[in-house]
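re: ur msg from earlier - yeah i can do the phosphoric acid mono(formamide)ester complex, just paste it... oh wait u already did. ok heres what im feeding in:
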Amino acid sequence: MVGALKGKDYISTQDWSKDELEMALELSAELKRMFKNDIPHRYLPDKTIFLMFFDKSTRTRNSFEAGITQLGGHAHFIEAATSQVAHGESAKDTGIILSSYGHGIAIRHDLVPGEGNAYMREIAKWADKPVINMQCDVDHPCQTLADLMTIREIFGKDLRGRKIAVSWAYAPSYAKPLSVPQGLIMLMPRFGLDVVLAHPPEFTLMDEVLKTAEANAREAGVKFEIVDDMDAAFEGADIVYPKSWGIEALFHKPEEALRIAEQYTDWICDERRMKLAKQEAIYMHCLPADRGNEVTDAVIDGPQSVVYQEAENRLHTAKAIMALTM
Ligand code: CP
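and the outut:
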């Protein structure tokens, strides 16, 4: 399996067939087993990946850095702000040059709608090594693959008839990217989940993404619906994934989006809301979470929360994506 998708970019889960994603999940599970049992798995000896960040990170950076080390390779951390990218060096030049020094380029560029995904695709056009999306404005395919892995560990592979509630939640910390809820609504229908998306009217997601999610649900024969009521979304859900995001048109004025969000401080995942979901429902969040705003401590630290398993699976899925493509 290792190297089976050598050279293939991973910019959106939409770019990979279901079989390719299944392969990534299978390899992630195998890598997890080996990691847990201290079995060496140096599948990428002497390979270099460049990790370029336009935004902050804890899980993504460290899962890739630890992951490539465990695979026998090495990562270079590049902060866009302290590289020549900040002086306007083109994606073409960056892509050609970095790909001539190593074996893969991973990028996080998630803060401005319309920019990150386009930047990655431009790098990918010129780089002759795989480009991996560590979160852009449109998708966070490393996160959603780890989420799917986690869901299948808990509920098994056959998810048909199960429902995930992807809901907006209030957070005062910052205007969070749209890419996690967007990635979830695109990916989860392909693997059999019914999806309910809930948000206040101002917090819509990108039109193209909604169309893709609808098409994926139609093709898979599952449900996709949008509501403006967090309680309604939670009713009978097997999985709840409440998190905050910003307003597409206001990412250049984030304080305005945060002001609008203040109308919706009651969009919090608390124990009352968890009772609306199924008794065995799980609580998920990509983290970092705004505790006390997006979610109460009682829920995120409670028995239904799987956030640490989810975060751990970021390591195994990141390694699988690198091992398949590099
Ligand atoms: N979930 C996630 O991508 O975490 P970081 O922002 O810490 O990388």
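cool cool. The chain has a mean pLDDT of 98. ping me if u need the other ligands too
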